[in-house]
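Q: What would this chain look like folded?
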Amino acid sequence: MNKPYNNKAWFFILPVFLSVAFSAIVPLMTVVNYSVQDIISPTRSVFVGLEWFRAMMRDEELHGALLRQMIFSLCVLLVQIPLGIGLALSMPSKGWKSSAALVILSMPLLIPWNVVGTIWQIFGRADIGLGGHTLSQLGIAYNYASNPLDAWLTVLLMDVWHWTPLVALLGFAGLRSIPDAYYQAAQIDGASRWAIFRFIQLPKMRGVLMIAVLLRFMDSFMIYTEPFVLTGGGPGNSTTFLSQYLTQKAVGQFDLGPAAAFSLIYFLIILLFSFVLYNWMQSAGNSGKTSGSAHE
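A: My prediction, written as structure tokens:
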């Protein structure tokens, strides 16, 4: 006998739909409207169709910002994911040491983004900053304000310091969810430390690592506040990423039409890369399970 279907449950999620419509859909439709209009004044606009999208696709500055953004996001993943896994594996699993390690590791995540930029702005100065002064004493010519490579590496190091704890915390949670029976069986079989990591810990952490990769990729692709405070996008355009390029279009130049068109392109780029990355990780995980089963 089939149970009666209660439609009243939809009333509980109706406020959520209304909130999403108000906070996401309505602004999105406004952006879509701006992207096909030439905003001459607050009360006057001209319909231009897809002209702004064509202009954005031909913009050389946009191409440069996109390339810098892709390289930066790739470096973020290549550095933070292995480093976060290493920190998670090295953390104590139980007792007060584990609690203390979790608290200390979480501290960078609690610092506001603009404060992070200010901290590293001071830290990298050769006159008053510990990092910049130490490098100058070692004879290393370091100046993030005038050297594009120094500025880019400083932004990358700043992001690694700020967000690697998130990857470590997620990895630590994945490790703690592994039953002790797995480790006991591995000990009986005489498995090496690498074998335990390869065939027990890494597969069990796959879910949380997938979340970590997607979160870090999307967040790194939208980075704005930290490099803006640290370098202002300079020197030159070396640390001008997509979000700052969009802000310059919308706020600095007040080109609302091109900025709206680019924001939609920006959204589709993030969506596309996240989709490809998610499917690649899923396929890699499935192939890993298959190879693991064959190995057993």
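The CA atoms of residues 107 and 126 lie 25 Å apart.
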